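Shall we go through a protein fold together, starting from nothing but its sequence? Please make up or recall a protein chain and show it to me in full. Go ahead whenever you are ready, and we will take it from there.
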Amino acid sequence: MAKSEIKMPLPKLDDLFTTEQERQEANLEKVVDISLADIQDFPNHPFKVIVNEEMQEMAQSISEYGVLLPVLVRPLPNGKYQMISGHRRKKASEIANKETMPCIVRNLTDDEATIIMVDSNLQREKILPSERAFAYKMKLEAMTHQGKRNDLTCDQLGHKSIGKKSVEILSDELGESTTQIKRFIRLTELVKPLLDMVDDETIALSPAYEISFLTKQEQKWLLNSIECNVATPTVSQAQEMKDLSKKGELSEDKIEEIMCREKPNQVEKLKLDFKDLQPKMPKGMPTTEWIKHIYKALDYYNRAMERQRQQGAR
């Protein structure tokens, strides 16, 4: 009977010339200074990095004291790094004219990186609905890739299929109901101008959820109607449009008819003609900014008229 051979793994060359303590230390995470130019943003990062007063204050602090809390990055095959947590600190460092910043380098899979990125940013004090929507969606997709079940095809009134596991796990982590999580995720189906209106609270979450089921073309028709009528849809109007869309019976004229109906307790509103206004608006200005621009123009006009009256009274 032949003797069985026991094959022992050969030690790596580095192991022959390093101590056990050195090998253990090599596996520990360290804080290292990395050039800002070598740190790439996380792809499709759902959280907005806004240069506002708070950002300027952060930049001033970094200018004086440096970045006190290291950011988290992961190494990329091209020799650079990808930001996981710390996009705002990086932007503030750029404003402060810093060339490097302290980083913790951690090897992470795509799904691990996505989950950590979302979790770290959800700790912010204020999160926009659009940020929450895309963050929830990205995390659930990452959880699905890790082998957890997920179902995002649910309607507001009931589930199409069970597939609750990953949503329930996320619900427990966030303290949000599974229904609310899925309502937020539906917002990712809105065209950007409508989603912006949800962020600035022009459109409430409930009607926004309903109109997210409209096709992209139907949403563009609705956007035009909102701008022309200077009014947003109620929940009942949004549900009616959603039902007609499902039947293939929603047209631009039908949207206009629904939007022009008098609402309960509605204050009479002035209707503006989109085609007449367009040539008078600054070139390149988004239509969502037109109303603010009109108000500013009226304020300027009223101040000018008041100055004329005061000069005439002298």
